[in-house]
Fold this protein.
Amino acid sequence: MRKLVAGLTVRNNGQRLYAKPLQNISKGVTILDQIINTIKCFNEIKEVVIGIAEGSENLCYIDFCNKRKLKFVTGDEKDMLQRLIK
């Protein structure tokens, strides 16, 4: 049986705002939390997987995923497509 998976890629080395996905938009809710919560509203999407860029500055996303029981993969920081395919 096939299932639809939402793949999101994250990294902390953005040029405009460092760690943007982990910025709070309201008390205890990050931008990444809000995106995931919105995705989970769609019954067709069965799972969310986070593609985390390699590097020590991105280890916080592994903690994020573990706390929220999300699957994740790691990959090259520059090759976002490779992380999505993985």
Remarks:
- The first helix runs from residue 31 to 39.
- The longest strand covers residues 45-53.
- The two ends are 20 Å apart (CA to CA).
- DSSP finds three helices and five strands in the chain.
